[in-house]
Amino acid sequence: MSTGSAEAAATGLTALVDAYLRTLAHERGASAHTLRAYERELGDFAAYIAGEFGADRTVDRIEHTHIRAFLGTLYARGLSKASAARALAAIRSWFKWLAKAGYVEQNAASLVATPRLPKHLPRVPSIEQMNRVVDTVSDDAASWPARDKAILELLYGCGIRNAELVGLNLEDIHWANDALLVRGKGRKQRYVPMGDAAAVALRAYLAERSARLAAGGGKGSATPALFLNLRLRGLNSADGQARLTTRSVGRIVKRIAILRGLSADVHPHTLRHAFGTHLLEEGADLRAIQELLGHERLSTTQRYTQLTAAQLTEVYDRTHPRAR
């Protein structure tokens, strides 16, 4: 038995999953969302292997046929191809790490084909629709209008991710440069320009934020978090931050969007898609959009080109006399 196989025999699957998750968290700077997803997917897979082949089954004895069988159980449970593809991506990433660390000789998951997924282009609101939503944040649609307007202005006006938004601190606002310091995936940082409308909304919110904290008192009044929850829950906790959560931002965006006539499937990432799409429609360079969005690969940004092309085709088919 090789050194890697001997180590694998002495190490349970759950322990290897935990070790990989620690690597993701501490060495690769994975987000909390990614860690939760990988923990869920890999935990399910480890439980399946133990249930089918025994708790003593070592990782070096897992074959690609076992992984295919696991994906089959996901379909049997009613999960979609997209869910199966996410699970396979997590298993592939884990096996890649296992091979690099010497626990297995090859990545068995690389022999499993990714489920073929239908191509769905995200539905993006028009410029007019987005302006209407952002410009009409009021008491009927928002629990804290000044804060919620600032949230929409930054999501749509700066194109940042939900997690990047809630991770912002006061010190990340660079007023002299009209920019935000954003911490993206993998702890990568980038500066994002802040437009006049976003700056005005942010200043209005900060005035109310200070007033609420002064009224609330307590040691949490010095919280670094930019966006706070409505009731300032957590001000007197260990970290004393009262930071708004991504789930709360999702509810805020959906409620305002629906009340302003947008579809029920709108979420914070919809505003990010709208940011990229509308920049492209107005003539922005694709590589500039890539930098603004913080995409590592240009191919990710090119989805907006496909989206705009689809919209142009729809307009052509509907309006040109030779298309009918």
Describe the structure.
- The chain is mainly α.
- It has helices at residues 3-10, 13-26, 32-53, 64-76, 81-101, 127-135, 145-158, 162-166, 196-216, 246-259, 268-281, 286-293, 298-301, 303-319, and strands at residues 173-174, 179-183, 189-193.
- Strands 1-2-3 form a three-stranded antiparallel β-sheet.
- Helix 11 (268-281) crosses helix 14 (303-319).
- It is globular, with a radius of gyration of 23 Å.
- The termini are far apart.
Q: How large, in whole angstroms, is the Cα Rg? A: 23 Å
Mean pLDDT: 85
Globally, the shape reads globular
Helix content: 55-70%
CA(first)-CA(last) distance: 70 Å
Largest sheet features: 3 strands, antiparallel
Number of strands: 3
Summarize the structure.
By secondary structure, the chain is mainly α.
Topology:
Blueprint: H1 3-10, H2 13-26, H3 32-53, H4 64-76, H5 81-101, H6 127-135, H7 145-158, H8 162-166, E1 173-174, E2 179-183, E3 189-193, H9 196-216, H10 246-259, H11 268-281, H12 286-293, H13 298-301, H14 303-319
Antiparallel strand pairs: 1-2, 2-3
Essential attributes:
324 residues, mainly alpha, 3-stranded antiparallel sheet, 14 helices, globular
